Amino acid sequence: MKLTKHILMLLLLLTAISCDNVLDKQPLDKLQGENLFSNPEGVKLYMANLYYQLPIEDFTFFRQGFNWNTGDPNNGGFAPAMITDEAVHTEFGDFIGNDDFQWWDQGYKLIRDTNILIDIIPTLDVSEDETKALVGESAFIRAYAYFALVKRYGGVPLITAVQKYEGDVEALKVPRSTEKETWDFVLKECDIAIANLADSWPGGERRATKWVAYALKSRAALHAASLAKYGERAPISGTAVDQKLVGIDKSAAAEYYKAAIEASEAIITSGKFALYKPAPANPEEAAENYRKLFEDPNIAPAEAIFIKGFARPGAGTGHNYGIWYQPNQTANGWPHPGRMNPTLDLIDAYESYTNPGQNAPVTTTVAGNDVNDYNGFDPAKNYKRYDDPAGIYKDKDARLWATAILPGTPWKGQKIIIQAGFVKPDGNAQLFGGDPIKVGSATIYPYGAADRTQYSGFDTWGGNNTRTGVSFKKFLSEGVNVAPGWNQTVSDWADFRYAEILLNYAEAIVESGTGTAIKGAQALNDIRRRAGHTKDIPLTIDNVIRERRVELAFENKRFWDLVRRREYHTLFNNRVRHALIPVLDLRVTPAKYIFIRQNIARLNPATFDYKQYYRYIPGVGSNGLVQNPQY
Q1: What is the pLDDT of residues 138-180, one digit of tens each?
Q2: CA–CA dist 532, 535 (Å, integer)
């Protein structure tokens, strides 16, 4: 039986007009609302518009907001991963700003639109099953909207019915609820959705199910639990704190961890979900399985619990990962590719198969004592040498090979060349530019090839080449050459997947000391076995967090993990991120590659301020709300 795990996309019958354009043509007053909802197709159209507005942090989620795929969504390809320790932008070096990741007006628009539907559901002439489905979907959408608000702003006004202006603006003002009340509301809405939604949709529609609502509850409850447990790591003060509009008492952590465990366990024990290809024969097979999962999540219906689809190329329906993040050599005519640069900080977190359960920082010298040395090339060091520039990564977790394009590996039929320079036969290093040299009859080029279209690293021309030593692979389609224009990529996004649920479950168990530790360890190790590991590791919080980093890399989870666990200000305190620089060593014959651990060039240190754990609330002068601390 095919399980429905997708959201409804814009109806294709509206070929040239998006749903929100249709609904924005005139206000939804009572008469128009009755006309719209009297027709089943009108209800579907309205529901499609609600799904379109969902704050899903997908391919079109950037600092500017959601659904950033208009006709010309030019933000330079700056993705949320680039303000974490996962990646940096090829040329930009700015960090999080006050106006980033805001979602206030848009959030309350979605809530109002959802409340319109909720208010009118009892009047609709539909079957009992259809009514339950509408109640469940509306609750899910409202839960998702308030989840996006509360994790940004803390406690917010809870508006549960359509407000009508009757001449008194003050009557429309709703004060902020406490942060705990807001989290409790999100979980309550999830429960309503769970109670009313079916296991699947009979026609395979891309809409929420009971299991999608459980997945949202799992994610939201874990977030709230972490805030309660770790809020003291980043103490703040002010009126909003005194009124408990931000912050949750530590005593509340237990109830939220319990909710996360129970929601995750419902999915795990349902028997309806599983990891995609959970038992690979070797790490190479594991890497390819993992790559394909993100190239097209529709091949994994048991893992991809909730997918947002991108229907066709074009404004509002496609996205731009294909143009921004391909390595320079496969840009296919797009002038500014290669902009997602995975960091050495992330690479170091991937385990080795010979020492499971531990971080495996890349060592570049025979002595192996250089993991904290970022001072550049030292001719006195005895560097490890490699015939193959990817050889230094040989024992690394398969997911690294599927997430990053490593130097010298193939992509779209080409060998991707990433080289920062060379060490001359006389021992002097020439890095990051300069002229080619002759060694015997061979011409050696600083970046590994003669022409700018033939390499993908370090050249600053156009901002198109990685400056960390690796390029980006996850989500990209190897068999498709994307047209060099806006919104031409149509791969789908897995918003909730089974691996995240297993990780939520394991984290909630180990952090709370409740639940069944054996089952939590099994959830953790099932994911690792899918990555080609054969040895189980114990259930510890360090093991769970490391596993989240590598399994969920670039899925826009790391930012919120650092926020909810109140770790951002510790990890980003004048933080410099790092690169692993491949260099051709001409001191030996034949020439071999060495690697240098180094600070990323042209990148300022980054610091996360306490106040950034919450976004500022816009419009407090007119809406009368208490502002968040330090804004």
Answers
A1: 999 999 999 999 999 999 999 999 998 888 888 889 999 999 9
A2: 9
